Amino acid sequence: MSRTEEVKILIVEDNPGDVQIITGMVEEMGYPVELTIAVDGREAINRLRRVTLHDLPDLVILDLNLPKVHGYEILAMIRSTPCLKELPVVVMTGSLNPDDEVRSRRLGATDYRIKPATIDEMDLIAVVLRNHIEAVSRSKGSRRAPGPIASPGQGPLRMDDGRSRRPHGMDGPRFVWNDPAAVPPGNGRFIG
Questions:
Q1: How far is CA 139 from CA 29, 82, 132, in A?
Q2: How far apart are CA 187 and CA 192, in angstroms?
């Protein structure tokens, strides 16, 4: 895949630990990706307002509870901007309030996921993100199967070798920490 066929993903997330986990999951999938990080809502809006056809993201992963501008406002701006309104937006939030999902979907979220608290939940999020990335890749006309973009195990996360026990019906990639010391400090939502 040439550089122009990379899947461009904008991650809008203020928690560095969550950014590390999301980028680790995406990079370990093996798709050629270009990741851009916006650490607050204002930065995300500024990036999206300056976007050109060349650097238009293919997918947005959006936290709701952001400093400066809330995720709802970003989602509303995306859906009201002609060149952005079809952009897939996966809301990924730590909020357990069911009203957040209802409001996000009303505003046009493509998908809504609660940030994982366990490895099994992280596996499910990885499957969801992989499905979105595959859909974007197909829509861009890519016919090549994903290949590694880094040596296996090079990042903070790696795919499990498949020998660990899995809940019934759970398939897709399972991620484990290469180094337990790499588990991000902070909110404690992610268990390594």
A1: 18, 19, 11
A2: 13
